[in-house]
Amino acid sequence: MTNHWVDIKNADLILIMGGNAAEAHPCGFKWVTEAKAHRKAKLLVVDPRFTRSAAVSDFYAPLRAGTDIAFLGGVINYLLSYDKIHHEYVQNYTDFSFLVKEEFGFDDGIYTGYDPEKRKYNKSTWGYQIGADGFVITDPTLQNPRCVYQLMKAHYSRYSPEMVSSICGTPKDAFLKACELIAETATANKTMTIMYALGWTQHSQGTQMIRTGAMVQLLLGNIGMAGGGMNALRGHSNIQGLTDLGLLSNLLPGYMTLPGDAEQDYKTYIEKRAFKPLRPGQLSYWQNYGKFFVSTMKAWYGEAATVENNWSYDWLPKLDKGYDLLQVFENMHQGKVNGYICQGFNPLASAPCKIKVSGALSQLKYLVIIDPLATETSEFWQDYGEYNNVVPSKIQTEVFRLPSTCFAEEDGSLVNSGRWLQWHWKAAEPPGDAKGDQEIIAGVFLKLKEMYRKDGGVFPDPILNLTWNHRQPTSPSPEELAKEFSGMALKDLTDPKDPTKVLLKAGQQLNGFAELRDDGSTACGCWIFSGSWSEKGNLMARRDNSDPYGIGQTLNWAFAWPANRRILYNRASCDLSGKPFDSERTLIAWNKGAGQWMGADIPDFVATSPPEKGMGPFIMNPEGVARFFGVDKLEEGPFPEHYEPMESPLTANLLHPKNDKARANPAARVFQGDWATFGKPDEFPYVCTTYRLTEHFHFWTKHVRLNAVVQPEQFVEIGEELAKNKDITAGDHVRVKSNRGFIIAVAVVTKRLRSLNVDGKRVHTVGVPIHWGFTGVAKNGYIANTLTPFVGDANTQTPEFKSFLVNIEKV
Amino acid sequence: MALQSLDIKARSATSTLSPLVRTAVTEVVKLIDISKCIGCKACQVACMEWNDLRDSVGKNIGVYDNPADLSDQSWTVMRFSEVEVNSGRLEWLIRKDGCMHCSEPGCLKACPAPDAIIQYSNGIVDFHEEHCIGCGYCIMGCPFNIPRMSKKDSKVYKCTLCSDRVAVGLEPACVKTCPTGAIIFGSKEDMIHHAEDRIFDLKERGYQRAGLYNPPGVGGTHVMYVLQHADQPELYHELPKDPGISPEVILWKGISKTVMNIGLGTAILGGIFHYVTQGPNEVSEAEEEKQ
Q1: Which of A196, A262, A704, B267 could be stapled to A18 by a disulfide with Cβ–Cβ 3.0 to 4.6 Å?
Q2: Residue B205 shares a structural domain with residue B280
Q3: Residue B196's Cα: distance from chain center in Å?
Q4: Is the domain of B19 the same as that of B115?
Q5: How many angstroms separate the CA of residue A8 from the nearest CA in chain B?
């Protein structure tokens, strides 16, 4: 989230789209209830299904799964056409006035630079015009046809209400009503918050869906405001922590990136990432990349990382391509992977296209499961009849199960959607032989280290030189790890302006990432977490709930990254002179007397930089402003464009009916063998989407009696019209099949899943909740991901779980 | 359960007076605001956890309602209704079903087992299952179809409004757990006041007929609902519009008792008088023969 949970109560309009906050986050949802009860806020829900969130909404609009870019593009068109935008905000805090390169273009759904063979773009034309001074050229009058404002206006002029209605299936009046509600928040004293989740990420165009939402918020001036923001509701209690610590395959901690194969040179690696300012007077905070990187390497390699060996840069893997979930399972499927340590993950159930995943696991020599539960993945080799139809004698994989603790059986921190690191304490002893994950990984590491030391190896350095300063080497404590990720001084840190003044002594915990250096004198496992454990102690454990300004800014409750800033981009909540746009929900303001920005939040800014200097609020961007024109940051293009899901009921993209290349995401990666696994609408005419229910958490809670009682048996949801067509009554068993397999479940027939008019045709949707499998105390069921396609978002490779094709029949 | 004997207001099948000395008793109300309920079933789970119950893992019969009905192990269930009150506007009304804790409880009136059903002065109606004889009359007496017979012990069970928690100053388990604050608990006065604010808000949002469900036919209840459509309670999975204790129960436990007592008394007295006056005058055949 750019804002946080409690801040939701400050909103005037809450848009829940690409997510189902009431269903998946019932506790956090109370802030929506608070906003409604105390601020008279309105709740708008846009979703293929009338969900639990819709049940308490003020207005609901349906849309076909996978068409969110069309809907939001239509909203952008509406806002620009009726000039319902926050002028001062977009003029000064976005790239509205920036000029784009002449060579950049868009032709019938494809941007300049496309290579259809490789399904990739050469993005060199996707940039701003740069002047002789090295800065972006702008046209503050917004008249130049190459300025971002004019280009964007032209781009989204195609997203008329009629076009949106035709693509999305949303009745035109419902779409326009949604636009009206949204447009009301363009004024300085009204804000909309967007709460989204996997309904936007789990598509082959997911990243662009989110970006379109962000663009709407920027037009309205809602980013950086209380009750505003782009708020991703994360799907696990610590998934935010996972991404923050860089556990995705292409990341380093704090959203730094691993080098690519071509980046063998350390200096090139840093230069490419330490963006220099592209506009005068901008901070471009990634300029400090070197400080973050070196501090991380000092945390990992200690004394072994020196200026001479480029801080052990050579020991990092250099990626030839992404090694995301889909790529790894593709490799596994091809027999290229020997072993897999599967920690806290159940890919047989969670990954798309079960038959491929099952085949992949069967190719492994060994599989190690670290988990508190007996997951389906740990039993992938067992014959469970129709639920898992395999021949155990044909599977040679040796499976090891290492039982681990569950969250309530250990101390540690969790990072919530609002970027709050909250410490929690152990409540119970783990059962049997279960051990904490740190202990298990420590055991593997120490053994490996010993073997490398004794037997040598091709390249043992990265393992042998890892720091391991734990009092009990076999059991690193959560406190030690937390202190490591927050960072410490390795030498006495002196004031750069006065070398006799010692700011921090060697061995002391850092106060924050501003103290990081690139000369090897600081160590920090995760720069954005810096300050969470300082000399003051464990700030994550603070439980002071005081809310002095009354807008939910509880700065002394836990610790938020970065630097305890609760609302990102909060400089944008004030005008150019430093005066807040909204006097009732003030976050920060420029205090001339004190010579700094202050208020209810920690400024997400250089606190002492006066408004006259003109530093922009988006301090991580080299331009200092937010981008409508995404330059070369994403794979599909600088402006989001509607593309159909890989499997779609339409044979063409209504925006580009003649260009087959622009039907689905032109830049989405599809492995060679998977093209044949996609289904066509003549055989699989219905849109299918998978989702969660409140009663369960993924595939965990079917192991819990209480959860199983309140939602015992696998079901699918279909609308009344489709049920009538197929002669299905509620309670009947039905078979839902895609080109990759089938499931059998009970049919819930509901008014909440409406059939839609799409391009003049009637389109029906089948809803498939995911929570069943073949282990646990609930009624055994089929793995829902038997149905889903093996393709992901072009940028993140998040699989397209939310929009694909199926057929259905009564059993 | 745990409230003290001095808090007892009425007992089933008992004509002895209940204690009257306590005067300063606050009536409690559990207020369920259906407009805030997201149907998450946390209340169902909390109820099972607090009361150490575990219902069986059943089947899905084609609806979100799970378990599909109240039982001896499920003292509260969510009832889901999809309705179109104003044409074109779908509403998903989700009602937490359970004992309404009536001021004039039909179950208590119908129950023939002394002390099996207790009404406390704070409004809670509690079953004392140790005295339950399993006749099932309470089920017939309940206008809301709540009590459920257990196959294990042939006794009936229902929501206790967490009388054990309330007795020590805690809120009921479902209230504590509700994530959206749809269920709140407090004095009757406070809850009615809060409901008024909620109804005002709902009317502003277009629910012209929003209102409080506190049916007078049972003297009012200690579980109340804020309904978006208070004029059509039946939309909420057959919530009775104007519930009252059934006439048969009123008759059977009311006037018919007196009538039967009089009848019985008359029959016995009549029999005695008849014997005393007529009996000795009757001559037996044996005596006749002796003469």
Answers
A1: A196
A2: no
A3: 24
A4: yes
A5: 14
